TrEMBL record:
Residues 15-201 form the Thioredoxin domain. PANTHER family: DISULFIDE BOND FORMATION PROTEIN D, GLUTATHIONE S-TRANSFERASE KAPPA. InterPro entries: Thioredoxin-like_fold, Thioredoxin-like_sf, Thioredoxin_domain. Residues 1-26 form the signal peptide. The keyword Transmembrane does not apply. Belongs to the thioredoxin family. DsbA subfamily. Keywords: Disulfide bond, Isomerase, Oxidoreductase, Redox-active center, Signal. GO terms for molecular function: isomerase activity; oxidoreductase activity. This is Protein-disulfide isomerase. May be required for disulfide bond formation in some proteins.
């Protein structure tokens, strides 16, 4: 089910106030969610619709939805994707998130992300995740160097993602924020396309 929440209203301070059940206990900075400079961005960076995706690499529903979301963004051509690695299911989720984010320093976040999401099963071992990223063509020597050099930045980003999810009242993964819509279950590419079309229609009114 797609929950249409005019779940926020924008104020002159650039803040977002959630309303309704599960509302945040405090205001959330919209820019921090949409434009964190450390958060990976896919699709069209200048797209007219932004989708923020809170995901865990051990979440089977994330694995189902992510390729559909990415395919929709490629087909549309004007959707901006913001990936929020939110590793909440196990310690191996943290390992996977760190691998993907470290791969980003060599411009390979997308490849690592897709490889991890393509892994079958739940709670895969850390070695399995590492091997999947290596098989995707990521330079693992450089990745390890980036993990070591940028551990503080990666850890801080994961903390910010978690704080944003908590402030937004999110209960688990996946969650996709698309304009005034919150989607808390996997959709296929046509389902995502319908939500994007609704956001664009609303913007024209």
């Amino acid at each position: 089910m797609i929950h249409r929440r005019l779940m926020l209203h924008l104020t002159g301070l650039g803040l977002l106030a959630l309303t309704g059940a599960g509302a945040a206990r405090a205001q959330v900075d919209v820019k921090a969610i949409l434009d964190d400079p450390e958060a990976p961005v896919g699709g069209d960076p200048k797209g007219d619709v932004t989708i923020v995706a809170f995901l865990d690499y051990n979440c089977p529903f994330c694995k189902k939805a992510t390729p559909e979301l990415d395919a929709m963004a490629r087909r549309d051509g004007h959707v901006r994707l913001v990936y929020k690695d939110w590793p909440i299911l196990s310690q191996t989720s943290v390992h996977g998130a760190k691998l993907a984010l470290a791969a980003g320093y060599q411009g390979r976040y997308g490849a690592a992300h897709a490889a991890l999401m393509a892994m079958s099963g739940r709670r895969r071992a850390e070695d399995d995740m590492t091997q999947a990223v290596a098989a995707a063509g990521v330079d693992m020597t450089r990745l390890q160097a980036d993990l070591d050099a940028h551990d503080a930045e990666i850890t801080a980003l994961l903390k910010r993602n978690g704080e944003q999810a908590e402030a937004l009242g999110l209960q688990g993964t996946p969650v996709f924020l698309v304009g005034p819509y919150k989607i808390a279950q996997p959709l296929d590419r046509d389902g995502f396309a319908k939500v994007v079309a609704q956001v664009r229609a609303g913007a024209r009114r």
